[in-house]
Amino acid sequence: MNCESTAFPRLHALGDCAWIVEFGSVIDASTHARVLGLAEALAAARARGLWRDAVEWVPAYTTLTVHFDAAAQADAAMDAADALLALARDAAPRAQPGRRWRLPVCFDADLAPDLEDLARAQGLTSQQVVGLMTGTPFRVYMLGFQPGFPYMGGLPAALERPRRASPRAAVPERSLAVAGRMCAVYPWRSPGGWHLLGRMPLPLFDAAHGDPAWLRPGDELRWQAVDRDRYEALERMAAAGALRREDWLDTGPRTP
Amino acid sequence: MNGVVEFVDAGAGVSIQDLGRSGHRDIGVPLAGAADAVLLACANALLAQAEDLAVLELLLLGPVLRALAAPVRVALAGDFAPRLTRADGSTLAVDAWRSLTLQPGEVLSVGPCRSGIGYLALAGGVDVPPVLGSRSTYARAGLGGIDGRAPRAGDRLACGAGQGAQRQAAGPFVHAAGALRVLPGPQDGHFDAAAWAMFVGSEFRVTREADRMGLRLEGPRLQHRAGLGADIVSEAVVPGAVQVPGSGQPIVLGVDAQTIGGYAKIATVIRADLPRLAHARPGSVLRFEAVTRAQALAARRELVESLREWVRRIGPPRAAGEPDEAALCAGNLISGMIDARPAGPDTSPWD
What we know:
heterodimer, A: alpha+beta, Gyrase A, domain 2, Cyclophilin, 2 domains, 4-stranded antiparallel beta sheet, 5 helices, disordered N terminus, B: alpha+beta, 6-stranded antiparallel beta sheet
């Protein structure tokens, strides 16, 4: 355990082709800004022709994992590890705030099968839960689990619930879900154990788009409640490809 | 591209795969790709084509394929006993580990994969549209392959046409046996010495929960250290990572693994042994052995070299009953002179 007591950032081998850089043990925006800062430093170094063996890097809550080209990994790999740790120490936290989104969600009961149960369990009304969900900014920490699946922090403590005791076999695609202090949207139908509080009319992932995932780590978003007519109209427009992503960016003044 | 094959029967566990979809893990897109990338390379090498072209991955029951319109060259890498049905209805047994040409109207019945996993290459590669840089099927999100799904009877695949000299391997490509080699961690610190000794000293059986996403194992319970437990702050995972959830029963992640995971990973299978992992089936017994990073990299070089050596020994087809050694010598002689398109470093994932 003595090696674990050294200060952050720390380096961990993930097999013989990836290194995990860990910046802390607590999920918060400042640790995450260091994760994104290293990602930016790597991108900048790559643009200068360095780090060619680094195939890609994956930001998570407290870590950035750098995947290396298996074929290029040679005895020099340990040097790469040292250089990566040095870069992690020197990289400034990302200062640039992420993009801000205002995204529609419908909280109708048939689209929100757990809304009433969660409200009751927390001693709230459904309307109060919707009020908390739409009145809170969420931060995108990472994308994973499924293509485009955003793990978002910022869920009010009043809505904190552990995952469902038995996961659903099939969560409908575009479901808005919460568990613990996290919020997410399932881009794809899949099994899942989070509480389903609503449904988005828009898909968050489009493989045919040059930038397939709408959201990126560091982005911030607020939910906007829409009624059923609006939800269905948006769903039809999205299916017809008649919506522009940019229209959902929140360009108003930044609130503290 | 004017060859076409039609699925008369789609088989089971069949998917279109190439080397996978790297470069998008930051947005949650799994790698996917051939579970045994060495056998993918073998199947393509039998057709003297780039070793990373898309092929059919065959897990359980191979498909029945009919050539339409033009002759199509195909090659099987894996343990199969295929049959060819001629246009006149006569059938004959054909061999895996060699190329053969399906004339229009001829039908290849691949039959069951008799051990592990195998691959069927088509001349020119399976021509489906690439999605995010790969033709690999990732069914959970409907990416790649044929509309992101398993093939169905009646589906047609475009590929290259034409004849070309037939080629045959000197023998099957055989993976090394023995324990799967791992690097410890990244969360080996979540386990005490006794749990680690149990991990590397015990046999684990693959349960029925086994697919391209991962293998759930059963064996002695790997106890987490008190106070650290099974849960970690979620972070990136890779194929080969050995997650240990609270049950203490490990899960080895496969090529379709999600990009992020929240369980402690006691160890990670080295890249050189991932192709071997692809052959594990429910009931298979796995053992793990710790190696150093230097050993992992050396293992990878050895695997690349063994594939290169196997490819060098591909030669013209042998007559029935002809011993392998004769073909082996001829193969070496001929490949040195007329191998028009050796799989060079620019085409191969293994160099």
